[in-house]
What does this fold into?
Amino acid sequence: MTRAFWYVVDPAALVEARVDPPDVPGTLHAAEHTGIGILRAS
It folds into this structure.
């Protein structure tokens, strides 16, 4: 079975976290892998 999740990141949160615009895609990809790692496999 395939499971998914969706998240929306407020641009202000990226600014507050000091993520530079060129680093946004990689940062979100890392967050994706984090989510995959913490979701329970079934």
